[in-house]
Each structure stands twice: as structure tokens, then as C-alpha cells.
């Protein structure tokens, strides 16, 4: 075969990895794909994908979702992409590249983006069956298949960034996992000894075994030639069925060497500041295969992207250069917060460290500060919250003292440095090199008003994702600053916050939503209908203050009924097909057999789907609206009451079995859980409230994940507050220790009422505690030390709630007027909604979803049995 | 339409192709809350009454999820127009035009309503 005649100038790209793809995008953006023929030789069986997020394959991301490119991009720009066909030779004289398939392409410009290969130490049997590397999707598929079919234990050679990711992945595959690291600490490149110690603790707590300071001497194989273990340098042998080598990477520069291009002493194709090889002006090298002008080979994606931009700019005859980049990293391993940025090891002359270390809590934070106060770099282990901001501040003098930046919130200082303190040229997203100024511009000039819009507009946040938090803060600040009113008001009807409305309702004893809207609403909302946001919020405020302001505590009385969200309105939870679920209260999760039988009978008689909930009670699904009163009549009769699964109010107080039965229990956790659940049931609050009581420090009830959690001690109870499961889990903070029963209840009374008074709408205690100025310390001052002098009042409010509590369902089924609401159709109360239908599944029912998409049944079947026309 | 205050035994009627169909007593409609009505041909209508006693009728089916539940949503005012927010995924629908305020491409049917 011969080279194609070169009509238009041809760019040949060897390697379609992350940097290669970025280079193609840069060519397209600069219009070069229109003026050039672009040919890509891609070795892997698939086009470029997100290698940085490779490990997310094990948490369910498919190879397709990892892809960085699509057919349209390639087609629209006329790019000739040859998948699965690597370059095997370059003839620089004749300017042509030969691919494995025999394809020969002539070039005017050749760009090498061949990346790296994983380094495998030359130990005996390193290629045995069961040995893997961790670089490509194919590697992961192979590891997964092997782990599932024939391994129970896995070991990773190398305790660096990738090694830890790989070890986490092996653990996720269900293997007992080991990490073997030659250096005396984990992540030796990024963290120092102190950070390594904190990291070690966290990793071990995750159930991974770590062996530091030992090398791998030999892979031990069984008779079938497959791995059975590893011999280590201390003479010991580690039994394992699978080995992943993650001992660093080396630039893939063989192709370059073979055609006579200069490479560095330790590998990497030597290039200048414009990413041109020093040997041949027609050849460029970018990404991990390049030895940059500053003498470094970069193993991170962000510098590679910059090189891709530089090479494309050079080809377009634009000004650009790559002279070096930042080596910041944040570990993506689930559950481990580790980040390092800038000059993390303090190599600059005369620099100083500021260190906060708490090895008990697995916390370690170090900042490296120059003589003049400039932040040079740092290491964060255990809490990398501030990473985004600190990384961007690197190179400038932070506006607050360095000490206050490392101290944890609540430990004295804890200055919360927001991204507003950043200078405009601070790089917020280092994956895509996006500065704060660019992000601001996206808001002010390109009129982006949400984070997803800004991501799309600037690419920021679309790489490793570690900057997204700061991005969100910036967008809000910017919107506020540019006058795009980021209204603090509750909604379009009220300019006040929920807290302010609470104070108005309380002080002026306003028990009517209409009155509140007409007097205190925004000008143009007065006299209107209000909206779906403020109606339930105000209804909740009125309900939680009901006894104090002389309103009815019953949420379906008078005007209040019209304000409730649909769930509260029907005292049940709406499901996707228009049916409801029913959850009776089972305080503390304790239930007598007789009552269990009643639930079973009711569910059977009404044909309901039953499920044990995550809250230690039983949910019955599939009740039609007109069945709710019938079901509840039987439940109330058997002594059940509403479980408020529908309300922003107390859900469950979970309990463990405690000292009555458990050999470890030190207090009666079941009794306490029941007492608390009965005390706070029905309490309307800004968001739902959950609680749990554990009988000893083993914590079987998971109290530390609750809004208020109680753990027994030998001398009383410890109270934890602000815990949360859900999407953003938060461990609760210890509020007070060794409380008596009475002290515990009094403190919870105060805590809950203070929360109800000051929280925003739909703000759980966890986010509230994080948001309010002073945080936990302030709350403790208020509710323990009575610093605001309001504790008496808080207690009085709670006492009034407890005294006035009534079961909503008992009240409802005894009131014919309220019952009139529970009909399918106002004109045909006995005709069930024909769209609510079910099909069988696993011996129970589930909604007939296909019917939902049709939306309607033929008329003749519908009106059958209709009592009224 | 607007009503004289405190008129009692009025009936709510829906306009069908060529007639008015009587649904229920007016007092069954609480301001700010809806009810569902079943038409002879099987269609379902969500009926509402606002603070100013204006009446509205729209198709009861939530076009996003498919369930017939719009009558169970909360009403509100947006730029002077009355809407209902679906109780499922909270999309809002203009009660007069049926236009979804959160998705231009979606609109539900509306019905003429009167009380007499
Ligand atoms: C039924 C149940 C799942 C189950 O089958 O086990 C459930 C079901 C729902 N949960 Fe849940 N959650 C259930 C336990 C939990 C738990 C576990 C627990 O309570 O121990 C959690 C995590 C703990 C926590 O809340 O901190 C949980 C975190 C959530 C969240 C996220 C809250 C957060 O702060 O991030 C929501 C969404 C929300 O409330 O905004 C939610 C919302 C919902 C809703 C209300 C969603 C909806 O609007 O339809 C579901 C309706 C239930 C229904 O129709 O009856 N559910 N939900 C559980 C009922 C427990 C009970 O007896 O009351
Ligand atoms: C598990 C994992 C996690 C990572 N996490 C991070 C992180 O959090 N942050 C970060 O910055 N970086 C991370 N990295 C590193 C990042 O993926 C690389 O820096 C980036 O992929 C480099 O891009 P590249 O295009 O230079 O190389 P690659 O993406 O490796 O692409 C090179 C491509 O060239 C192909 N190729 C090689 N030789 C030839 C040939 N002769 N002909 C044709 N094709 C050839 C290869 O098959 C490969 O597809 C991680 C890497 C891994 C493996
Ligand atoms: S928390 Fe303690 S007392 Fe309760 S069940 Fe667990 S071990 Fe037993
Ligand atoms: S820093 Fe990685 S996506 Fe922004």
C-alpha cells in the first residue's frame, strides 16, 4: 500500500486517549478540522473514554457512559478514526505512519498522544495468571471476571493514588484486600508522614489491610500456574488469588525512540514550550508520553489538556505555551478524603508549616506557607472540604490566618473561607484550567444561572468533579452580586425567610395563611392564591405553634386543609399511580403479635402490598383514596394511630433491643425510644425528624445518623444531634453526655423547638446545624446554657404540643365532614379511579404502569357500578 | 366566572360538546383545593375554585407520570394567573389555559365551568 496523495494538509494523531480527544476538540474549536484532513490511530478497541473516572465502572457506570466522544463529533468534523489499529512505525523522512493493519498515512503534522503504560516490577512470575494492571476498561473487565470466578483475596502492589483506588475496587468486588507499599507510608508522593498516618487509619477502618515498608519479591504460583500468593521482602508470604500492579506509570515512547526522536533519561518524548518535539518540528507530543519543557512528565490529566490546547494553538499559529502545571490531586476513593495541592512537601526555601493533627479522628491538615505569608501548598487528610478553595488560593496570601484555615469548625477558630475570597485569576477547576474570572463571566456575560449551565458553558466541573462544590458557591455569590436577585425569601409570595415568618406568626398570633399573605406577602402576591411552596411551609409553622397562638392543632381544620401538601391532605403517602400507602405508628419498632396480625389481616383484606420499612415499621401500599378511611377505621379500632409518614414531622424513633434482652445493653433503649416517639409524635417541623436510641456504644440503632440520637452509657444517656442519612449523610455531633432521663428529655425539647423556630423550609437538622452562625457551639450555648434566655419558652411550647396532641386519623374517621373528602370522584364517589390498577408481582401487587401511560380505560368498563351520574 | 358571595344551592356544571353537565354542589369546592369528576365517557376532570371564587376545569391526568391526580395538587398564583402544581413531580399548570408553566411543550385540556 502507498500513502494517500496529500491534497489538504494532514494531521495524524497517534493515541485516542483523554488528551488525544481533547486535542481533537481543540482542533475543531479552532476551525482546523475544516482546513485539515485529520486521521486518528486508536489502539484500544473503543474511542476515548474518561480514564480518570475508570473506577466508577465498579459503581455501575457503563463503558458507554464513560465515553468522552460520540459518533456525531467524529463525523461532523470529518475525522477519520481507526479504532483498534495502533501505529507501529513512523518514517519521519517520508513523513508517513504505518498502522498494524497495514494502513499507511502520510502526514504534514504528527501528534503523539500515546499516554503511559503501567510499570510492572520485574519480579518472578509477574505475568502469571491472576496478575493484572489497572489502566484500561479491558483491564477492569478482566479483573472483574477473574475476581468473580476464582478469587476471594486480592492484593495491590503500590499504595499510591491509583493503588488505593484499585484496592477500594477489589474490596467493592467482595475480595479481602491488601495493599503492599514499598515506602513507609501510603500515597508517598502526595502526603507526608503525618498525613500518611491519618490516611492509614482511615484505610484500615475501611477494612483494607495495609503493609508498608515492604517490597514484593516474587509472585507465588500454584500447580496450574495461577497466582496463590506473594513473597514479601521481610520474608513473609501473603496468600492471595489475584494481584494488581499499580507501581507507577512510564511514558509510552517506544514509537518515538524507534524513529529517532529524542527522549528523556527516564523516558518521555522531549518537547519544547509549544509541545513540538525538540528533534522534529513536524512532530508534537502531548499528554503522559511527553517530557515537558520544564523537565517533567505529567501523570495527571489537567496538564495534558493544557498541552493539547497548546499544540492545537500552535498549529493555528496562535500564541500559547506550556511551561509547567500544578500537581494537585484529590483521591476519589469512596469514603476517604485526601487531597494535596501545590508545594505539598514544603520544598521551597524558608517555607513554614501550619499543621493540625488529630489521629484519633483520622484528621490531618497541613498548609505550607512562604515567608511572606503566601500559601504554597498543603495536604488534607480526613476532611478535604476546603480543598477547592485552598487550591485556588495557592500562590496568594489568604485573607485570614493560616491557623484558622486548618482548625476544624467548632474547635475555636474555624474561619470558613468562602470562594468569594479568591482572586479572579485563581484556577478553580484545574482539570479544565478554568479560573474564577471565567466562571463569573459565565454568569454575568453568558447569563448562566445554574451550576449545570455553567458546567456546560465553561467545562468547569466536568473532569474529576472535585471543584463542583466551590463552583456552586461561586455561582450563587455571583448571581447575588450581579443583582440577579438570589432572593432569600421563602418564595415568590413572601420576601421573608421561614424563620422570619415563624417570628411574625408567633409574635402577632396570626393563625390564618390568608391574613399572613395579605399583610406580609410581597406586594404583588397579596390577595392572590399563594403558591405550593409557602402554603405547606406556613401550614407547618401554624401547626407547630398551634396551641400557643390559639389555632386548631388539627391539620385538616378550616383553611388549614387547603394549605397542606397532598400527603398531609389525605393523611397518607401518594404513590406514582395515584394510590396511597398507609403507615401506622409502631413506637420504637416494638409490636405485639396481636397487632402484627391485625396489620396482616387488613393488608390481606384490602389486597395491599406490604413491606417492612427502613424505619422499623410496616408500610401498606396500593390503597385507593376512598379506601383510606375504611382501612383506618380498622387500624384505629385495633389501637393504632397515624405514623405521620406523610408529614414533615416526627417519623420514627428506632431502637435496639437494649438492656432487657441484650447481654451488652446498659439502659432500656426500647422504653426510652417509645417514650420519645410518643412525646414528639405529630410535631410539625421544617423537615422530617428522625431519631433512634441505642442500648450501648455498639450502636445497633444507628442513632448517630439521626436528627437526634441517643446512646446509653452506664451512667445515663449521650445525646447526639444533626445526624442524617439520605443523599448527604452526616454523623451527628455530641451535644451532651451522661444525662438522666429527665435531663435528656428537657434538652431534646429545647433542641427541637429551637430548630423549628430557626430552620429554613425543608432544612434537616444537619444542614441547619452547618448553616447557622456559630454552629454546634451556638446551639449548645442556647439550649444547654440558655444564652438567649429562651429555654423556658422553648420548653413551654413543647409542653403545649405534648398536651394538645391528638391522633389525626382518629379525629378524621369520626368527622363525617372530613370524610367527604376521601372520595375518588365528587360525582361518583363509589367508582374507583380506573387508572389505579395493579398487576401481580412476587405474590403481591404492584402498580399497572403500562395502564398509566395509556391514561384511560375504555368507557364501558369505567362507568360500571357508578352510583351517580 | 365570578359569583355573588354566599349563594348557596348552586351547582357546578361542566361544558361538554353541546351541553352543560352537572357535577356537584358548589360548596363541595373549597377555595384553593380541587376535586375530581368523572365524565360519562370516562374522562376525568380536575375542578378548582380560587379565592376570588373563579372556577376552573382541566384534565385530571398528570401528563408526566400518567396518574389521574391533578385535582389533588396545591394551587397558587404566578404572574397574576392561577395554577395548580401536580402533587407528583410538582410541575405547574395554568388553570385557565392548561399550559404547563415548567415545560412549554406540554398542555392539558381545559373545560368550561359555571355555577348555577
Ligand atoms: C418507606 C421507606 C422506604 C422503605 O421501603 O423502607 C421510605 C420511603 C420514602 N422516603 Fe425515605 N423511606 C424510608 C426510610 C428512609 C430512611 C431510613 C431511616 O429512616 O432510617 C432514610 C435515610 C435516613 C434519613 O432520613 O436521614 C430516608 C431518606 C429519605 C430522603 C432523604 C432525606 C435527606 O435528608 O436527605 C427522602 C427525601 C426527602 O425527604 O426530601 C425520603 C423520601 C421518601 C418518600 C417520602 C419519597 C416520596 O416522596 O414518595 C418515600 C415515600 C414513602 C411512602 O410512600 O410510604 N427518604 N428514608 C422508609 C420509611 C421509613 C418509615 O417507617 O417511616
Ligand atoms: C484508574 C486511574 C485513575 C486516574 N485518576 C486520575 C485523577 O484523579 N486525576 C488525574 O489528573 N489523572 C488521573 N489519572 C491519570 C489520567 O487518566 C491520565 O493522566 C490521562 O488519561 C492521560 O491522557 P493521555 O491521553 O496522555 O493518555 P491515555 O489516556 O492513556 O491515552 C493514550 C492512548 O494512546 C493509546 N496508544 C498508545 N500507543 C499507541 C499507538 N502506538 N498507536 C495508537 N494508540 C496508541 C493507548 O492505548 C491509549 O488509549 C488516572 C488514571 C487511571 C488509570
Ligand atoms: S446497641 Fe448495644 S444494647 Fe443495643 S442491641 Fe446493640 S449491642 Fe445490644
Ligand atoms: S478540578 Fe476536576 S473537574 Fe474541576
Automatic annotation (TrEMBL), chain A:
FAD/NAD(P)-binding domain span: 10-312
Record InterPro entries: BFD-like_2Fe2S-bd_dom, BFD-like_2Fe2S-bd_dom_sf, FAD/NAD-bd_sf, FAD/NAD-binding_dom, FAD/NAD-linked_Rdtase_dimer_sf, NasD-like, NiRdtase/SiRdtase_haem-b_fer, Nit/Sulf_reduc_fer-like_dom_sf
Residues of the Nitrite/sulphite reductase 4Fe-4S domain: 647-783
Essential cofactor(s): [4Fe-4S] cluster; siroheme; FAD; [2Fe-2S] cluster
PROSITE patterns assigned to the protein according to its UniProt record, in alphabetical order: NIR_SIR (PS00365)
Keyword tags: 2Fe-2S, 4Fe-4S, FAD, Flavoprotein, Heme, Iron, Iron-sulfur, Metal-binding, Nitrate assimilation, Oxidoreductase, Thioether bond
Pathway: Nitrogen metabolism; nitrate reduction (assimilation)
Domain Nitrite/Sulfite reductase ferredoxin-like: 575-636
Class in the EC hierarchy, top level: oxidoreductase
Cofactor: binding details: Binds 1 [4Fe-4S] cluster per subunit. Binds 1 siroheme per subunit.
Keyword Metal-binding found: yes
Any single Pfam family the record assigns to this protein: Pyr_redox_2
UniProt catalytic activity: hydrogen sulfide + 6 oxidized [2Fe-2S]-[ferredoxin] + 3 H2O = sulfite + 6 reduced [2Fe-2S]-[ferredoxin] + 7 H(+)
NCBIfam families per the UniProt record, alphabetical: nitri_red_nirB, PRK14989.1
Physiological role: Catalyzes the reduction of sulfite to sulfide, a step in the biosynthesis of sulfur-containing amino acids and cofactors.
Family, similarity comment: Belongs to the nitrite and sulfite reductase 4Fe-4S domain family.
Protein name: assimilatory sulfite reductase (ferredoxin)
Organism of this sequence: Streptomyces bungoensis
Organismal lineage: Bacteria, Bacillati, Actinomycetota, Actinomycetes, Kitasatosporales
From TrEMBL, chain B:
Keyword Glycoprotein in annotation: no
Keywords carried by this UniProt record: 2Fe-2S, Iron, Iron-sulfur, Metal-binding, Nitrate assimilation, Oxidoreductase
Record's keyword annotation contains rRNA-binding: no
Domain of life: Bacteria
GO BP terms, alphabetized: nitrate assimilation
A Pfam family of this chain: Rieske_2
PROSITE patterns: NIRD (PS51300), RIESKE (PS51296)
InterPro entries found in the cross-reference section: NirD (IPR017881), Rieske-like_NirD (IPR012748), Rieske_2Fe-2S (IPR017941), Rieske_2Fe-2S_sf (IPR036922)
Molecular function, one GO term: oxidoreductase activity, acting on paired donors, with incorporation or reduction of molecular oxygen
Stretches assigned to the Rieske domain: 21-116
Protein name as catalogued: Nitrite reductase small subunit
Species of the source: Streptomyces bungoensis
Amino acid at each position: 500500500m502507498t500513502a494517500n496523495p496529500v491534497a489538504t494538509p494532514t494531521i495524524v494523531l497517534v493515541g485516542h486517549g483523554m488528551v488525544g480527544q481533547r486535542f481533537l476538540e481543540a482542533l475543531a474549536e479552532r476551525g482546523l478540522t475544516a482546513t485539515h484532513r485529520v486521521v486518528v490511530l486508536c489502539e484500544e478497541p473503543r474511542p476515548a473514554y474518561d480514564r480518570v473516572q475508570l473506577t466508577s465502572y465498579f459503581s455501575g457506570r457503563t463503558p458507554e457512559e464513560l465515553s468522552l466522544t460520540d459518533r456525531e463529533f467524529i463525523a461532523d468534523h470529518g475525522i477519520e478514526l481507526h479504532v483498534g489499529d495502533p501505529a507501529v512505525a513512523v518514517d519521519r523522512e517520508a513523513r508517513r505512519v504505518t498502522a498494524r493493519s497495514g494502513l499507511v498515512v502520510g502526514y504534514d503534522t504528527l501528534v503523539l498522544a500515546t499516554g503511559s503504560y503501567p510499570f510492572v516490577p520485574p519480579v518472578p512470575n509477574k505475568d502469571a495468571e491472576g496478575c493484572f494492571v489497572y489502566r484500561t476498561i479491558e483491564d477492569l473487565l478482566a479483573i472483574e471476571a477473574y475476581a468473580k470466578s476464582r478469587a476471594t483475596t486480592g492484593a495491590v502492589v503500590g499504595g499510591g493514588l491509583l493503588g488505593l483506588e484499585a484496592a477500594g475496587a477489589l474490596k467493592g468486588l467482595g475480595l479481602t484486600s491488601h495493599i503492599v507499599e514499598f515506602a513507609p507510608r501510603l500515597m508517598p508522593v502526595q502526603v507526608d508522614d503525618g498525613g500518611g498516618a491519618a490516611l492509614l487509619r482511615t484505610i484500615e477502618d475501611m477494612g483494607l489491610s495495609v503493609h508498608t515498608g515492604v517490597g514484593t519479591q516474587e509472585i507465588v504460583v500454584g500447580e496450574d500456574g495461577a497466582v496463590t500468593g506473594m513473597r514479601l521482602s521481610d520474608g513473609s508470604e501473603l496468600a492471595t488469588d489475584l494481584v494488581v500492579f499499580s507501581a507507577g506509570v512510564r511514558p509510552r515512547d517506544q514509537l518515538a525512540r524507534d524513529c529517532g526522536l529524542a527522549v528523556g533519561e527516564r523516558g518521555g518524548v522531549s518537547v519544547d514550550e509549544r509541545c513540538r518535539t525538540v528533534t522534529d518540528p513536524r512532530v508534537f507530543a502531548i499528554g503522559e508520553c511527553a517530557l515537558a519543557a520544564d523537565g517533567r512528565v505529567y501523570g495527571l490529566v489537567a496538564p495534558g489538556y493544557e498541552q493539547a490546547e497548546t499544540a492545537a494553538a500552535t498549529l493555528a499559529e496562535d500564541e500559547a505555551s506550556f511551561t509547567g502545571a500544578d500537581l494537585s490531586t484529590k483521591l476519589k476513593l469512596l469514603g476517604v478524603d485526601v487531597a494535596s495541592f501545590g508545594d505539598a512537601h514544603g520544598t521551597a526555601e524558608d517555607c513554614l508549616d501550619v499543621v493540625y493533627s488529630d489521629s484519633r479522628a483520622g484528621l490531618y491538615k497541613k498548609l505550607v506557607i512562604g515567608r511572606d505569608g503566601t500559601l504554597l501548598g498543603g495536604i488534607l487528610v480526613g476532611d478535604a472540604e476546603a480543598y477547592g478553595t485552598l487550591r485556588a488560593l495557592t500562590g496568594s496570601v489568604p485573607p485570614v490566618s493560616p491557623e484558622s484555615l486548618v482548625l476544624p469548625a467548632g474547635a475555636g477558630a474555624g474561619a470558613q473561607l468562602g470562594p468569594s475570597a479568591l482572586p479572579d485569576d485563581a484556577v478553580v477547576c484545574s482539570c479544565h484550567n478554568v479560573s474564577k474570572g471565567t466562571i463569573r463571566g459565565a454568569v454575568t456575560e453568558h447569563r448562566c444561572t445554574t451550576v449545570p449551565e455553567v458546567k456546560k458553558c465553561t467545562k468547569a466541573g466536568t473532569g474529576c468533579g472535585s471543584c463542583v462544590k466551590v463552583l456552586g458557591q461561586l455561582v450563587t455569590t455571583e448571581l447575588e452580586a450581579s443583582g440577579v436577585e438570589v432572593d432569600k425569601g421563602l418564595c415568590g409570595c413572601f420576601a421573608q425567610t421561614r424563620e422570619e415568618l415563624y417570628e411574625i406568626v408567633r409574635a402577632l398570633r396570626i393563625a390564618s395563611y390568608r391574613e399572613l399573605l395579605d399583610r406580609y406577602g410581597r406586594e404583588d402576591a397579596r390577595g392572590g392564591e399563594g403558591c405550593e411552596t409557602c402554603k405547606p411551609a406556613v401550614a407547618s409553622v401554624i401547626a407547630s405553634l398551634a396551641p400557643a397562638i390559639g389555632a386548631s392543632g388539627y391539620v385538616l381544620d378550616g383553611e388549614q386543609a387547603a394549605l397542606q401538601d397532598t400527603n398531609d391532605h389525605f393523611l397518607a403517602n401518594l404513590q406514582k399511580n395515584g394510590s396511597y400507602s398507609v403507615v401506622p405508628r409502631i413506637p420504637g419498632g416494638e409490636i405485639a403479635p396481636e397487632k402484627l396480625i391485625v396489620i396482616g389481616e387488613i393488608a390481606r383484606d384490602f389486597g395491599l402490598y406490604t413491606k417492612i420499612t427502613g424505619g422499623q415499621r410496616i408500610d401498606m401500599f396500593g390503597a385507593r383514596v376512598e379506601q383510606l378511611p375504611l382501612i383506618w377505621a380498622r387500624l384505629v379500632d385495633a389501637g393504632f394511630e397515624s405514623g405521620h409518614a406523610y408529614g414533615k414531622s416526627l417519623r420514627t424513633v428506632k431502637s435496639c433491643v437494649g438492656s432487657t434482652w441484650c447481654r451488652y445493653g446498659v439502659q432500656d433503649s426500647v422504653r426510652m425510644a417509645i417514650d420519645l416517639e410518643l412525646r414528639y409524635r405529630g410535631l410539625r417541623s421544617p423537615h422530617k425528624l428522625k431519631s433512634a436510641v441505642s442500648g450501648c456504644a455498639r450502636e445497633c440503632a444507628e442513632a448517630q445518623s439521626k436528627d437526634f440520637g441517643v446512646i446509653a452509657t452506664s451512667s445515663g444517656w449521650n445525646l447526639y444531634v444533626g445526624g442524617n442519612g439520605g443523599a448527604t449523610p452526616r454523623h451527628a455531633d455530641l451535644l451532651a453526655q451522661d444525662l438522666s432521663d429527665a435531663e435528656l428529655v428537657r434538652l431534646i425539647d429545647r433542641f427541637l423547638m429551637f430548630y423549628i423556630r430557626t430552620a429554613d423550609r425543608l432544612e434537616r437538622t444537619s444542614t441547619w446545624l452547618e448553616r447557622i452562625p456559630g454552629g454546634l457551639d451556638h446551639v449548645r450555648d442556647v439550649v444547654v446554657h440558655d444564652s438567649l434566655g429562651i429555654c423556658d419558652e422553648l420548653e413551654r411550647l413543647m409542653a403545649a404540643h405534648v398536651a394538645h396532641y391528638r391522633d389525626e386519623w382518629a379525629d378524621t374517621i369520626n368527622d363525617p365532614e372530613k370524610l367527604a373528602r376521601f372520595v375518588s370522584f365528587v360525582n361518583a364517589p363509589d367508582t374507583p379511579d380506573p387508572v389505579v390498577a395493579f398487576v401481580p408481582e412476587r405474590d403481591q401487587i404492584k402498580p399497572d404502569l403500562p395502564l398509566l401511560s395509556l391514561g384511560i380505560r375504555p368507557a364501558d368498563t369505567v362507568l360500571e357500578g357508578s352510583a351517580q351520574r | 366566572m365570578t359569583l355573588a358571595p354566599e349563594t348557596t344551592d348552586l351547582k357546578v356544571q361542566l361544558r361538554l360538546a353541546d351541553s352543560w353537565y352537572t357535577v356537584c354542589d358548589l360548596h363541595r369546592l373549597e377555595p384553593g383545593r380541587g376535586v375530581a369528576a368523572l365524565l360519562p365517557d370516562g374522562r376525568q376532570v380536575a375542578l378548582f375554585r380560587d379565592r376570588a371564587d373563579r372556577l376552573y376545569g382541566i384534565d385530571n391526568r398528570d401528563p408526566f407520570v400518567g396518574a389521574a391526580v391533578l385535582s389533588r395538587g396545591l394551587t397558587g398564583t404566578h404572574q397574576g394567573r392561577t395554577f395548580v402544581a401536580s402533587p407528583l413531580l410538582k410541575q405547574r399548570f395554568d388553570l385557565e389555559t392548561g399550559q404547563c408553566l415548567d415545560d412549554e411543550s406540554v398542555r392539558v385540556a381545559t373545560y368550561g365551568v359555571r355555577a348555577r
